[in-house]
Amino acid sequence: VYLINNKGVTKFTETAETLDPSATAAVTVSLRGLRVSGARELRGDVPIAIDRDRNAITVEVPPGDIRVVQITTE
């Protein structure tokens, strides 16, 4: 799953872009009927905790950045 956050980025033709850290997005991915054994953010090689009660994962995506999430099923 690719998660992209375009919010919080200001860019003009003659200036460097600026990022607003308050525009970080907390994205919740509902896994619905999947039986997930693991989730991992691939760019940083970081495991993601699975909320077993809601069968979902939550990933923070900073402004102007992406997260690539690998979801492994049982």
Layout of secondary structure:
Elements: E1 2-5, E2 9-10, E3 18-19, E4 25-30, E5 36-41, E6 46-47, E7 50-51, E8 56-61, E9 65-73
Antiparallel strand pairs: 1-9, 2-3, 4-8, 5-6, 5-9, 7-8
Walkthrough of the structure:
By secondary structure, the chain is an all-beta fold. Strand 5 (36-41) and strand 6 (46-47) form a beta hairpin. The chain starts with a strand and ends with a strand. The model has no long low-confidence stretch (mean pLDDT 94). The radius of gyration is 15 Å and the shape is elongated. The protein has strands at 2-5, 9-10, 18-19, 25-30, 36-41, 46-47, 50-51, 56-61, 65-73. It contains no helices and nine strands.
Main features:
74 residues; elongated; 4-stranded antiparallel β-sheet; single chain
Quick recap:
By secondary structure, this protein is mainly β. It is built from no helices and nine strands.
Describe the sheet with the most strands.
Answer: 4 strands, antiparallel
Strand residues, percent: over 45%
Provide the gyration radius in Å: 15 Å
As residue ranges, the low-confidence spans are none
Query: Within the largest sheet, what's the order of strands?
Result: 1-9-5-6
Helix-residue proportion: under 10%
Supply the helix-strand structural class: mainly beta
- Strand tally is 9
Distance between the termini: 17 Å
What coarse outline follows from CA principal-axis ratios? elongated
Helix segment tally = 0
- Order of SSEs, N→C? EEEEEEEEE
Overall mean pLDDT score?
Answer: 94
